[in-house]
Amino acid sequence: MTLLATRGLSKTFGALRAVDNVDFTVRPGEFLALIGSNGAGKTTLVNLISGLFRPDAGRIEFEGRDVTQQSVNERIRTGIARSFQLVNLFDQMSVFDNVALTVFARERKTRSLFALADRDAAVADEAAAILAQFGLATRARMVAGGLSQGERKLLDVAVAYALRPRLLFLDEPTSGVSTREKAPIMDVVTSVVRSQGITAVVIEHDMDVVFTYSDRIVAMHQGAILADGTPDEIRRNDQVTSTLIGTVAPA
Ligand SMILES: Nc1ncnc2c1ncn2[C@@H]1O[C@H](COP(=O)(O)OP(=O)(O)O)[C@@H](O)[C@H]1O
Ligand SMILES: [Mg+2]
Fold first, then answer.
1. Entry pTM
2. What is the number of domains present in the chain?
3. Nearest of 179, 236, 199 to residue 34 by alpha carbon
4. Pocket-testing residue among 43, 83, 204, ligand 1, by greatest number of atoms within 8 A of Cβ
């Protein structure tokens, strides 16, 4: 069973083959880690799948349907959402409003920004529930810019989650936080994602995190898929160990 499949997907920047003829598949319900050293093409692959970039060649299928020509917004409606390696938040807005605005946008209520979330009970209830799921309820009235780095990363995931995707891409959800903060973030993220039956693909550098939380691991190198297997298989894969694991930047 396949939820998402790319076929011969390619993206070049000048002479650089950032994503090179990639067949990447995601199965329903799995928590998949996408690994690889800096510049391997992981973010570019996610940019292609989420519709930020158009591929030079190849196609993308979601539940067997070709979505290659869909816009970002159409893909969100199809069920594909993503968070960003560098968080994508409105720092001057409250934590609550960051989530509420996303729920609004999803419901296509943003035509009137004067229709405040506080006046829309359904939106307010949903935003509050999402913040509670991510352990951010007590932060709701703070401005997003006032959060700790770990909380900001969680809020960024919460915003992507507020789009109610079926397939959620998380681009380095623990980057820039201390080692001590990584497990609490991943515990919250995996518990929300698994309890809601959401399929997730996580780009992650910390191999402890990767081996602890993922069902399957796909390793990229120089734009291509180098290996694909269970955490045990990847741990035993000499090519991955020599090419990637030794070279991954320390957290
Ligand atoms: N918008 C862009 N313009 C030009 N080059 C890019 C762009 N995005 C990524 N690249 C290049 O493509 C390669 C893959 O980048 P990226 O997908 O961000 O890697 P990763 O996320 O695995 O670190 C890198 O060499 C990077 O410099
Ligand atoms: Mg990246």
1. 0.92
2. 2
3. 199
4. 43
